[in-house]
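Incident log, structure service

09:12 report received: a user says their structure output differs between two submissions of the same chain.
09:20 pulled the input from the user's history:
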Amino acid sequence: MELGTDRKSAAITHGVPMHEGPRTYIIFGAMRGGTTMVAGVMRGLGVNIGPHLDENNQESRAFNGPSIKDMVQSLQSQNAKDEIWGWKNPNAADYLDRIWSDIRNPHLICVMRDPVANAQGLNRWHSVGRIQSAQESVLRLQKNLNIISLRKCPSLMISYEKAVGAPDLFIDEFATWLGVEADAARTQFNFSEFMRPSSYKSFDEYKLTQA
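09:34 re-ran on a clean worker, output below:
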């Protein structure tokens, strides 16, 4: 499957992803911007998304809050356990440069959301004003794009709105980029219901029992 050719596609790719050997996926974007949905889908496709997970927002506590030194130690520890893994933090762009040399074969997954929708979500949680929230959303988007442009590693840019609008296509394209099998994963996880827009969801509630 060639990604991004369907008019309903949520994907823009940059570089060629690895499908063999060790690699690390970093999901980032903006707060209230759809990164939890994408992280849950990646987890449903069988990719480990880090230690000490928060089951509601799919964030590894090892990469959300600790010092740079502690994050480097977590990288080294997780690399020793898993060839293929990753983590999600909407604001990872704030610290990626400081741990970049310790990330093994980084693959960037940037989730993008309509700045108006993102601003509305941000303002519901932090009432700073809709215009300021929209500005924060656009500035964050530019910062994320700068990292993708400068680092020149395999990257996937995802439209949150298009992904939830055509979930089956998104799952197939995402699985293709990751180099995993989507059909087998569908017998184990209810992707379409997990992807349905709402508040945070527990990953385990969407696991399916195999026939």
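09:41 both user submissions now match this output. Likely a transient worker issue. Closing.
09:42 reviewer note: The mean pLDDT is 92. The CA atoms of residues 189 and 207 lie 4 Å apart.
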